[in-house]
Amino acid sequence: MKKKWYQWLAAGAAALCLTGALAGCANKASAEKTKKAAGPSTVTLWAGGSDNVRESMEAIVTAFNKSENGKKYKMKLEFIMSGGGAQSLSSRLLAAKKTNQKNTKYDLILMSDGSFSSYVKEGGKDFFTAYKESNVPNAKNVKTKVSDGKGVIMPYRGTTVVLAYDSKRVPKPPKTTQELYTWIKSHPGRFAYNTPGSGGSGSSFVQSSLYNFLPEKALSDSDPKWQKEWNKGFDLLKELHPYLYKSGGKVVYPNKNQGTLDLLANGEVDMIPTWADMTITNLANGGLPETVKLTQLAPAFTGDVDCLAIPSVGSNPEGAQAVMNFMISKEGQQILLDKMAAIPVVDSSTLQSENSKRLAGLDIDHFRIISIGDLGSELTAQWDRQIGTLAK
């Protein structure tokens, strides 16, 4: 019996719906396949500093990509060596923000908590993207506080400049900065600090020499008025200048943090200001003799709480938060402690390392943090004019 026209129409419509449904399923399956083929999204971390920082961040990248996180995100590292244009990172970030760039590869950066105010001052309050505690559950274990930017920047390690000395030649090291200055004058040529523009340890020595004459509040104030109070500090540095390390009969200020460490390792000097983590790394790998010890002075040299921050111009804030969460996890903190003797921001009793013994007595909560914004660059420029020229 022949079907009536409306029966054929109904049958055709049903077939069309089925075809559409199948096509929809095919498209969905194709989309899922394409998404799967695309693999994990890339999250790029930008970091700067000395070689020990680079090695540590490379270890973090490897561990992160091998973890469960690696199934969803692929972490990459962009590293800028200390003294080789680190300032250009902040310049590029600010340029990207001011030109309204979006979806750049500046997903996550390392920075000190002291530089937060400078970024925000130049780039606006929305320069960084706040992290969500639900995406960074390990944040509840972080004991270290930041001076500014709570809820936006995440501390991941502590670092400070200390006095390193060869105990074989200096059995009784100075305990105060005044005792250090007296020792320098009593032992001509046996102390060195690197140019402040080439590394943080030399910068810390210079900053401490100036700011020890100022009230404590000046350490966290970028008001240009404090420049008028720098004279006593610069006079002190001029007074110390003739007693510093010499080569060829002239005072020499080494280049970079490693420059002073090399002098100490070779026995050309007996004492230097140096980053605690960098020195411990050199002790662990045999780069320094075992007779080298660390001590903190009173008042202490300045240091930093190093943090992670998510620039708003980045393209992968979710991936950035996953990396942030990993770096403050027990696994991440263990890597940083083992690789660079980073002072943990979590309960250190949960971590075990040979470096823990060398870090004993260094309490991050009692570090002196300096946050003076653009005054830091001006201070370095003035050192170049007033002190650096004395060596020529």
TrEMBL record:
Record InterPro entries: SBP
Record-annotated membrane-spanning stretches: none
Keyword Signal found: yes
A Pfam family hit: SBP_bac_8
Range of residues in the leader sequence: 1-23
UniProt keyword Signal present: yes
Keywords linked to the UniProt accession: Signal
PANTHER family reported in the protein's UniProt record: PROTEIN YNJB
Protein name: Extracellular solute-binding protein
Taxonomic source organism: Lapidilactobacillus achengensis
Lineage, opening ranks: Bacteria, Bacillati, Bacillota, Bacilli, Lactobacillales
